[in-house]
Amino acid sequence: MRAWNSELAAELGLPDAAGPDADAVRAVLFSGGAGDAAGTPYAMRYGGHQFGNWAGQLGDGRVINLGEWEDPHGVAHTLQLKGAGRTPYSRGADGRAVLRSSIREYLLSEAMHALGVPTSRALALVTTGQQVARDMFYDGHPALEPGAIVTRVAASFVRLGNFEIHAALDEIDLLRQLVDFCITRYFPGMDNDPLAFYAEVCRRTAALMAQWTALGFVHGVMNTDNLSILGITIDYGPFGWLEPFDPAWTANDVDTGRRYCFGRQPQMAQWNLSRFGSALARLGLPVADLEAVLRTFSDQYNADFQAAMARKLGLTQIRADDQEWLGALFTWMQDDGVDMTILFRGLIDALDEPEAVFARLWSQARYAPGDDMAPPSPAAGDWFARWGQLRQEQGMSVDESAAMMRHANPVVVPRNWMLSQVIEAAEANDWAPFAALLERLRHPYVGTFTETLQGKRPQWAVDHPGCGRLTCSS
Fold first, then answer.
1. How far apart are CA 58 and CA 56, in angstroms?
2. Any idea what DSSP says for residue 191?
3. How far is CA 51 from CA 261, 266, 474, in A?
4. Cβ neighbours around 281 below 10 Å, total
5. What is the spatial distance between Cα 135 and Cα 143, in angstroms, rounded to a whole number?
């Protein structure tokens, strides 16, 4: 056992993996070898649109759901093993996971939780002692890597693709049963209304996209089989964080068309929801009603994103008249390749001395080459003047804005170059860097501006495998 999430285990009411029940915990959670004592294990069947194309039947190819665990408050949580072996949906693959991808999933899911983003959680990480063959870039160069299993936890791992497969194969009775089950189990109070169910999934997905965008997070593989009905982040594979600000950046080398690049994530989520709506239409729901619900996605996303950006800038709101003002900042960031995380955290220090701090901050956060490292001027002066005017109009003091911004702009996020160093150490059986980074990621909004600068991507990571270069095998 390499990692055990004691905090999550306590919330779930699970026995301590280090205590007298350790053997039982390992048997139930880590190997899947406890038989009926672990519940009724199963793998889910689903379909999906992958990169915009219907891929047919997919399913949990390397995930085994142990069942549901009821916590002390009576809330059910699905526990599953990722990488424990073949399932009926492995499609010829081995059903295993490698240490590299398992470390990435464990650290990112816990980091997202600490950032306040809805997500699946990681309960445990074990190494298996097996060697697993993987071709990381699908270029004909497979290599043996150490195997691992992550125990994942969420209220549900049902995704949009679970509904698509039944609609595609004319399994309408099964589709209706699944919809009824999900409404009853996860959305009580809807009075078995599939249209209200659709609207709530759309609302939650819009909220999730707004959180991703405001933090500069890029998922990398937003297929319909990777979007949850609960609006939580699941299936961490290729992912990344905007370092040089670039709306066209994608975290997946396979995504040559940049379908899931940073700037298109909300649009692609809406497209995925349209496929979900098409599946629900097979139940007899009026297409016009489903389309009307889907049209609300953009308004919901925009409202949630503007609210998130207001918090990041220490404001109570950003009005329609301020869109050009906000957009100017993003334009400058893109033109100069500015690190999003560093810039927004650094703006807290610019509340008192805006232009002087901003000039230094711009230089330190910029990736673009060139001798002129100063921000746009005099436009920057006008921008800061308007920022101060907005805070004054909204009754926000410097201290109040700073407090709001500290809770909206992280000091540290799990950048790929950090994860790469942890993985290399763990593969050499040095787990101290893993523990240190995990502890740091659990407190993302605490720290100093100086520390933020240490998060800037080093040059070696630009094209390094697992940093600047990622695939679905990552």
1. 6
2. -
3. 12, 15, 17
4. 17
5. 6
Token pair in block for residue 224 = 């319909």
pLDDT in tens, 46-69: 999 999 999 999 999 999 998 899
CA distance linking residue 293 with residue 190, whole number of Å: 16
Among left, alpha and beta (phi > 0; psi -120 to 50; other), residue 417 is: alpha
pLDDT in tens, 259-315: 999 999 999 999 999 999 999 999 999 999 999 999 999 999 999 999 999 999 999
98 has which bridge partners?
147
Task: Answer left, alpha or beta for residue 83, where phi above 0 means left and psi between -120 and 50 means alpha.
Answer: left
Judge contact between 449 and 402, C-beta under 8 A: no
Alpha carbon distance 179, 30 (integer Å) = 31
21 has catalytic annotation:
no
Q: Three-state SS for 98? A: strand
Whole-angstrom distance, CA of residue 280 vs CA of residue 287: 9
Alpha carbon 456 to chain centroid distance? Answer: 20
Amino acid at 29: L
**Biggest alpha carbon–alpha carbon distance for the chain:** 70
For the question of whether the overall pTM of this predicted structure is more than 0.90, the answer is yes
288 contact partners, CB below 8 Å, separation of at least 6: none
Residue 410 contacts by C-beta under 8 Å, 6 or more apart in sequence?
115, 215, 341, 345, 444, 445
**Across-strand partners of 217?**
241
CB 276 within 8 A of CB 164: yes
Are 271 and 219 in contact by the 8 Å Cβ rule? The answer is no
Where are any strands of DSSP class E within 71-174?
Answer: 76-82, 97-98, 121-134, 143-154
DSSP characters over 262-326: GGGHHHHHHHHHHHHHHHHHTTT--HHHHHHHHHHHHHHHHHHHHHHHHHHTT-S---GGGHHHH
Question: Do 64 and 81 touch, CB atoms closer than 8 A?
Answer: yes
SS3 218: strand
Annotated catalytic residue, options 135, 180, 225, 289: 225
Please name which of 446, 444, 449 lies closest in space to residue 364, comparing C-alpha atoms: 449
Residue 376, C-beta contacts closer than 8 angstroms, at least 6 positions apart: 332
Residue with tokens 């880590």: 30
CB 229 within 8 A of CB 201: yes
Measured between alpha carbons, how far is 290 from 196 in angstroms, rounded to an integer?
10
**pLDDT tens for each residue of 98-126:** 999 999 999 999 999 999 999 999 999 99
Per DSSP, the residues of 133-161 read EE-TTSSS--EEEEEEEEEEEES---BHH
Query: Across the strands, what pairs with 449?
Result: none
